[in-house]
From TrEMBL:
InterPro entries: Nicotian_synth (IPR004298), SAM-dependent_MTases_sf (IPR029063)
Superkingdom assignment: Bacteria
Residue ranges, annotated region (Disordered): 1-28
SUPFAM superfamilies according to UniProt: S-adenosyl-L-methionine-dependent methyltransferases
Protein name: Nicotianamine synthase
Keywords: S-adenosyl-L-methionine, Transferase
Residue ranges, compositional bias (Basic and acidic residues): 19-28
Organism, as annotated: Pseudonocardia ammonioxydans
Biological process (GO), any one: nicotianamine biosynthetic process
Length: 299
């Protein structure tokens, strides 16, 4: 998930002067987060003015909280964290499906894509990730597999259009793959796709693709918890021993939107770099390579 680049979604009165205590800013932030949870739970989470406004406020608050209160907020909001993440992931799915239909069905799909309010942020996120590769002296991707591509696979489309990568979109939901294919065809950006569930044994056709890839991008919602992330990256390390893996994560209050992943959660990877943006981009990224001593049979 990304927020709008212009203007920033900074909530009113934030950021506040830096403090590091459990004060009024902490209480106000917790109260607002709980109120947003209840507001969203009274909707079906499908795009409309009320839902868009609530999610905009939620994401803006998570990206731009009062300085110095993050740890206190996370401690107090803990009973609501799982519910907020579930609301965020469900809402994102509805938003992507809505815009995928809108773009693919428009007489001018390129113009419709340009109207997608978060398009610039996908470019920002991919630029951050390719910049992380460059910082490690690694080349840009030539053949990329995007896991958890969703119905609006903008990460893969940006990689294909802006960076010339041969991209494979992978998702466990056939409906999402069908929608993503329709968007790619409508805007004329070449990309391939495959339906595959990463929670079990990897299908042979995916293993073949992974072995040929130089970049594997693991979406933030691929694997719902740390144990699932570990299991999935273990299978990926075995199937793509020579690839670079980009594992999307979150930090600070952004963990109320996406699961946090740390290097310790990925024991089958040598994590070379960890990047936590402090911009309107929500996702952090971990850049790693499979540990050769930890290769295991693909299962």
């Amino acid at each position: 998930m990304t927020t709008q680049s212009h203007p920033p979604l900074t909530a009113p009165d934030f950021p506040a002067p830096r403090r590091n205590h459990d004060g009024p800013e902490t209480r106000r932030t917790v109260d607002r987060l709980i109120a947003l949870r209840h507001r969203l739970e009274r909707t079906d989470l499908r795009p409309c003015d009320a839902v868009d406004a609530a999610f905009g406020e939620l994401v803006g608050l998570c990206c731009h909280p009062p300085a110095g209160c993050t740890a206190h907020v996370l401690d107090r909001i803990a009973p609501h964290a799982d519910a907020l993440r579930t609301l965020a992931s469900t809402g994102e799915g509805h938003m992507e499906a809505h815009w995928a239909r809108r773009i693919a069905g428009d007489a001018d799909p390129d113009a419709a894509l340009e109207r997608f309010p978060y398009l610039g942020n996908y470019h920002d996120l991919v630029r951050l990730e390719t910049g992380a590769l460059a910082a490690l002296g690694l080349p840009g991707p030539r053949r990329a597999v995007v896991l958890g591509s969703g119905p609006l696979p903008l990460t893969g489309l940006v990689l294909a259009e802006r960076y010339g990568a041969d991209v494979l979109h992978v998702d466990r939901d056939p409906t999402a793959i069908e929608a993503g294919d329709a968007v790619a065809a409508a805007v004329g950006i070449p990309a391939r796709s495959l339906v595959a569930d990463l929670d079990g044994p990897l299908p042979p056709e995916l293993v073949t693709e992974l072995r040929a890839a130089d970049l594997v991008l693991v979406g933030a919602l691929v694997g719902t918890d740390r144990a699932a992330k570990d299991a999935i990256t273990a299978r990926l390390a075995a199937a793509a021993p020579d690839a670079v893996l980009l594992v999307r994560s979150a930090a600070g209050l952004r963990t109320l939107l996406y699961p946090e992943v740390t290097p310790a959660d990925l024991p089958h990877l040598d994590v070379l770099l960890e990047v936590h943006p402090r911009t309107d981009v929500v996702n952090s990224v971990l850049v790693g390579r499979p540990r050769r001593e930890d290769r295991v049979p693909v299962r």
